[in-house]
Amino acid sequence: MPGSTSELGELEDGLLGTSPADADALRRERLLLPRQRVALGASERTPAWQRTYVQQIVAVDAVAAAFAAFVGFFARFNQQPADLTTTPGRAVMACAVLLPVLWVMAMAAFRTYEPRFLGVGSEEFHRVFSAGLAVLALVGTTSWALDLDIARGYVVVAFPIATLLTLVGRYATRKRLHERRAHGEAGQTVVAVGHRAAVASMARQLHRASYHGMRIVGACVPGGPGTPEEDAELTALGIDVIGSLDEVRHATASVDADVVAVTACPELDGPALRRLGWELEATRADLVVAPALTEVIGPRVAIRPVCGLPLLHVERPELTGMRRFAKTTVDRTSAGVSLLLLSPVLLVLALLIRLDSRGPVFFRQERIGKDGKPFTMYKFRSMVTDAEKLLLDLRDATDGNGVLFKMKVDPRITRVGRVMRRYSVDELPQLINVLLGDMSLVGPRPPLQSEVDTYGYDMRRRLLVKPGLTGLWQINGRSDLDWDESVRLDVRYVENWSFTFDFMILWKTAGAVFRGRGAY
Prior knowledge:
The chain has 4 domains: 5-36, no CATH class; 48-182, no CATH class; 187-292, Nitrogenase molybdenum iron protein domain (Rossmann fold); 322-515, no CATH class. It has helices spanning 5-12, 20-36, 42-45, 48-76, 87-109, 123-145, 152-182, 196-208, 232-236, 248-255, 270-280, 322-356, 387-394, 415-422, 430-436, 449-452, 472-475, 483-496, 499-515; strands at 188-193, 214-220, 241-243, 259-262, 286-289, 301-306, 309-314, 362-368, 374-380, 440-442, 468-470. It is 52% helix and 11% strand. The protein has 520 residues and is of the alpha/beta class. The radius of gyration is 28 Å and the shape is globular.
């Protein structure tokens, strides 16, 4: 019953460090809220599309495991008839039948069906891969411990195939989800909480990454709705101010939001944020908090409990050391192999450039590399030879981002150059720069000296690593990006570099180049 010794002990948890008045308010509210609210079950809080999506990937996992079991079974008996009366035959048959069930259970145990890991990011795939390794280890260990005669050929074939097919199936399911979100379906409605500028910044980022499926439908800001001038920035983004910081629960219920996103806001300190979390338990909205520390994601951030305080531990970025040396080795080796394999294509492109217009095959330009050191960057020439002179007459017609000159229909580009630019093959000679050690396969965009001259303190973080042949700017719009967004993406890469991050960017680069979006 309320007021019991155990409950009062729980009420004191988390009140240390608050003022007496705040502590009394928290005690009263924690005693009253359980009587006032009706907690929603998981099924009531989960949108219908999300439940359907989870059911789809469970089916994908089961089908992948069943197919792998079928292939493994026949691979085991490919040279002799399957004798199910023998111990090896019965053991392999049991594995084939039980694998789909065991596979789905392993995926559930590794939390690969939790909505927060689905739809975006690499965490889902990482957990799928870990679950596959765990199942392989479990079957191998059980076979050894119980002296079961399970054919090694079956295990070696079935489990890698199951893992691969699961990853491919989930990727295909995710792409279909992204297509639905591009048409305004299967999304989450969001109430953003914080100061107007922070809410507007969040809205712009969510709009740029529409595949996340989050759409802000209202905002709660200090003081609530203001004058048209005060709310002009949010209004221009299609966001109505629907409440103050004290009205978040009511505002969330009024729009039936899926998520309440709290930006860095001094007014919402620890006790206020806890109270908001309790209030939202009576709604179906999840609470997410955007920390003041931005552009630091992934493995660098972890919650570290110290004396009951959940401290945000931020690891140093990996700018030096053995892993950076390994990255350089992989870059230069890959560049050398790629140049060798692509040499026929490069020769054909060089011939087409010479036949199309007068001038050299290569375009050379000084760019700024790691630690601000200049280097000569190589590209296939895609413009006429007097392009720099013609630029003076075209300055006013720029479609660029305020710093870089860009034109969607640039008269200086040659016929062959236009095709090369669309599919980014004019940048293939930069593999020479990667081989020489001036560039990396993945990194920030190589800047001009004129760009570096405009850098502030934050922007100079881009110069801590080698520029890349591709990068986050390549997979997020290329020339369609504004200057601030391109800088933000480059800083994010520097802060969060890892081999997994590089592989993800290289994988997505292929799709971005094929679509040709933002290439001009």
